[in-house]
Amino acid sequence: MCGIVGYIGEKDCLPILINGLKRLEYRGYDSAGIGYFRSNKINVIKSVGKVVELEKKVEAASVHSNMGIAHTRWATHGEPSELNAHPHSNQSNSITLIHNGIVENYIELKQMLVSKGYIFTSETDTEVLVHLLDLFAKNNYSFFEAVRHALIRVEGAYGIAVISTSDPDKIIVAKKGSPLVIGIGKNENFIASDVTALVNYTERVVYLEDHEIAEVTKDGFVTKTISNEIIEKDIHEIAINIDEISKGGYDHFMMKEIMEQPFSIENSIRGRLLQKEGTAKLGGLENVIDLIVNAPRIILCACGTSWHSALVGEYLFEQLAGVPAEVEYASEFRYRSPIINKGDVIFFISQSGETADTLAALKEAKMKGALVLGICNVVGSSIARASHSGVYVHAGPEIGVASTKAFTSQLVTLTLIALLTARKKNMNITVGQKIVSEMFSLPDKIKRVLELNDTIKEIAKDFADTNNFLYLGRGYNFPVAMEGALKLKEISYIHAEGYPAAEMKHGPIALIDNNMPVVFIAPKDSTYDKILSNIEEVKARKGRIIAVTTEDDTKLQNIVDYVIKVPKISEFLLPILTVIPLQLLAYHIAVLKGLNVDQPRNLAKSVTVE
Ligand code: G6P
Q1: Is pLDDT of 1 > 70?
Q2: Which of these, 328, 348, 451, 604, is most buried using a 10 Å CB contact count?
Q3: Helix (H) or strand (E) holding 473
Q4: Of ligand 1's atoms, which has the minimum distance to the CA of residue 304?
């Protein structure tokens, strides 16, 4: 949600900023802008649309500068327009800033500023920040102190970067709720909302924490808390390579990421499965595993696709490990005064590790005394750092807005945790060893599912002009039905519902006619016979049926319109295989509709506002 990048050093900053924005474009892509120094003045270039539109304007201006800040926007307040695009400047153009987050008390701040004669030119909440800074600067505060004092007045979330003609040798950055990193170079430094923007330039980063503010020059940086105490920060080495964040010959990141799943799953399990002992080894949980095993209740809390992983996690914890488990939407959890009992363990699942709702829920749970554990993909992300402990899913960078490989890696990680818990409780070693062998077989089985790509592409042709879809599954595959529907909605803008198959007769069945495609996830598992009846109920009402089943099924091809068969595996691992055809189906339908698969309208990869 909104990308921020900045540079101060000896090189020309404009190509660095544009390149950084392109890498961050998955965070927001409705407009973009750059503010840079030239001849002791701050200049601003903005454009509506993708970063490439801004790039054209910057190239046409043919300018160079050693210092600047840039922003790609995901609109929260005010439509996408040049006026609303960042950076925003004060009236005299001496202060310019970019902001990721939401200023929640912007109305009262705006009223106060308007009463003092400030004129607003945009509809954004961000503009109050720049005028507030101006107010403090006019009252003889230094640049740094003006930013610090202004932020003390701000409620809400921010990751900001500010430049000022009063101090043309520094960028001030600050963070609360929205991520911000400083990239350390030689005779140059960088700032960014996430490390992806810095990959070409440095591997050394400093993560700002909430309520921290830093002054960044070309030679170094000083960090303080917002209440003005100097703090020493650790420098972290980051390990993202450039191949991981390029499309690698595919038309879209989403397809590349779907196809990467045999390898991302291999990475998720590498070094974590013990065949002989029939269990899992997870360094991040070693100190807390007894608390998990003895927990009266496990809560899994997340948003979006990660929430669907949590639903599978609920089944895994209850069925494999016998621990009572519940799933919560992070956005609801925080606002209904959740009751946390002694011993409760709460897992927060997040690909980005930055989702504001999930982070806020985590802080609430931590404050109420729960053990909070993170299951994140992005190493060093806010949720990973705020957790007591946790497990990385190691899917590698996911750029496509619709989550694919991170979802399957989350499922694998949850299975590892459930297996470890179960073995510490009362699962016997033989059962554990069988699970370990099956988990080792996942990458090869996924490769076999991916061989169905052409078949699924053909099926997609029959559905590209459909307006509605129903996805139905039972047991472990109910969350998969929801995830399949979400994928289709996100990237093809087709209305789709995911439902427990048996619930269909309590409502959705009324929708079924020959125009309603229904995707059944119907593997030969413990619910197969029941779901066959549901399939017959749809067929009787002339619904068009696509069934995802397992290779040992012989019945469905005689009943349904299209059959997609995945390899056989134990029921609790099936979602990792059955979701892949649904990812491919959504992808091909969206491509056939000519839509931007990697950057669907209105969505952002990482939602850092509540
Ligand atoms: C956004 C993305 C979804 C994602 C959700 C949760 O809405 O568009 O794809 O599932 O956030 O993100 P997280 O990073 O916390 O898993």
Answers
A1: no
A2: 348
A3: strand 468-473
A4: 10
Cα of 604 from ligand 1 centre, angstroms: 8
Q: What is the pTM of this model?
A: 0.79
Please give the structure tokens belonging to residue 375.
């299951």
Residue 76's CB is within 10 A of a number of other CB atoms, namely 17
Query: Burial, 592: exposed, middle or buried (Cβ in 10 Å; 0-12, 13-18, 19+)?
Result: middle
**In angstroms, what is the span from residue 403 Cα to ligand 1's centroid?**
7
What's at 137, amino acid-wise? A
Radius of gyration of the chain (CA): 25
Place of tokens 């995945």: 566
CA distance readout (Å), 319 to 323, 324, 476, 570, 571: 8, 9, 10, 13, 11
Q: Is the CB of 355 under 6 A from ligand 1?
A: yes
- Return the residue whose CA atom lies nearest to atom 5 of ligand 1: 304
Identify the residue whose tokens are 């979602």: 575
Convert 448-463 to b/e letters by CB count within 10 Å (16 or more is b): ebbebbeebbebbeeb
CA nearest neighbour of 473 among 581, 350, 567, 401: 581
- How do residues 524-573 score in pLDDT, each as one tens digit? 988 898 899 889 888 888 889 999 999 999 999 999 999 999 999 999 99
Q: Active-site residue numbers?
A: 2, 605
CB of 306 within 6 A of ligand 1: the answer is: yes
Write down the number of H helices and E strands in the chain.
Answer: 19, 26
Ligand 1 mean position, distance from CA 514 (Å): 33
- Beta-strand ranges (E) seen in 88-196 are 88-89, 95-103, 156-164, 171-176, 181-184, 189-192
Testing ligand 1's pocket by substitution, the residue of 375, 379, 606 carrying the most ligand atoms inside 8 A of its CB is 606
Residue 527 Cα, ligand 1 centroid: separation in angstroms?
30
Which numbered atom of ligand 1 lies nearest the CA of 330?
Answer: 15
